[in-house]
Write a structure and sequence with these properties.
The complex is a heterodimer of chains A (about 110) and B (about 120). Chain A has about 110 residues and is an all-beta fold. Chain A contains no helices and 9 strands. Chain A is globular, with a radius of gyration of 13 Å. Chain B is an all-beta fold and about 120 residues long. In chain B, about 0% of the residues lie in helices and about 50% in strands. Chain B contains no helices and 11 strands. Chain B has strands spanning about 5, 10, 20-25, 35-40, 45-50, 55-60, 65-70, 75-80, 90-100, 105-110, 110-115. In chain B, the strands form 2 sheets. In chain B, strands 2, 4, 5, 6, 9, 10 and 11 form a 7-stranded mixed β-sheet that branches. The radius of gyration of chain B is 13 Å and the shape is globular. The chains are: A mainly beta (about 110), B mainly beta (about 120). The interface of A and B includes residues 48, 57, 89, 101 and 103 of A.
């Protein structure tokens, strides 16, 4: 099972919007609405920001939104803030021999 | 409040074994699917294993045949028995709980470091 493909880095200025893509296949991202996104600050455990493609857990800012088109999912962060600087990982259920598959990870930098 | 606390990590020689534990609290442990996820130093997240039921278990290809996931609902604990360890198994291991009505990793432990080196 190959990792989902994400851009290595994305950057933006405070207040701007950025979008992170997550490319998979019909066996994972494209086949199921079980795409989730995780934020990880250095030295910390990951935290779920989006689940089931576009749902936000309680307590997560509505500046974070998710979507999916075909085999590619996306995470958009609007009104970028300094605290959003972190690594972001997508994850999907997969019908392959695995169960979950993570993306390669994207480092978000706030300029 | 959901709490997951990993223990059992440390330094082990290649070919050796280690058993990780994850103590859960703040929720009905027996009602949730549980998972292990790892992260090599400076690298991304890698899913390791999921336990849905006692007979519905999944492993990543990289650990299948060497790692065994198990749970003791009476002790609210999840385990990962790791045998024939390799240098590439080095990393931080996280215990994670699924969502209540969805397939995602809703809650995570703080992680425990496993180092495989001679």
């Amino acid at each position: 099972q190959s990792a989902l493909t994400q851009p290595a880095s994305v950057s933006g200025s405070p207040g701007q919007s950025i979008t992170i893509s997550c490319a998979g296949t019909s066996s994972d991202v494209g086949g199921y609405n079980y795409v989730s996104w995780y934020q990880q600050h250095p030295g910390k455990a990951p935290k779920v920001m989006i689940y089931d493609v576009s749902n936000r857990p309680a307590g997560v800012s509505n500046r974070f939104s998710g979507s999916k088109s075909g085999n590619t999912a996306s995470l958009t962060i609007s009104g970028l803030q300094a605290e959003d600087e972190a690594d972001y990982y997508c994850c999907s259920y997969t019908s392959s021999s695995s169960f979950y598959v993570f993306g390669t990870g994207t480092k978000v930098t706030v300029l | 409040e959901v709490q997951l606390v990993e223990s059992g990590g440390g330094l082990v020689k290649p070919g050796g074994s280690l058993r990780l534990s994850c103590a859960a609290s703040g929720f009905t442990f027996s009602s949730y699917n549980m998972n292990w996820v790892r992260q090599a130093p400076g690298k991304g997240l890698e899913w390791v294993s999921s336990m849905i039921t006692s007979t519905y278990i999944h492993y990543a290809d990289s650990v299948r045949g060497r790692f065994t996931i198990s749970r003791d609902n009476s002790k609210n604990s999840l385990y990962l028995q790791m045998n024939n360890l390799r240098a590439e198994d080095t990393g931080v291991y996280y215990c994670a709980r699924d969502g209540s009505s969805s397939t995602h990793l809703a809650s995570w432990g703080q992680g425990i470091l496993v180092t495989v080196s001679s």
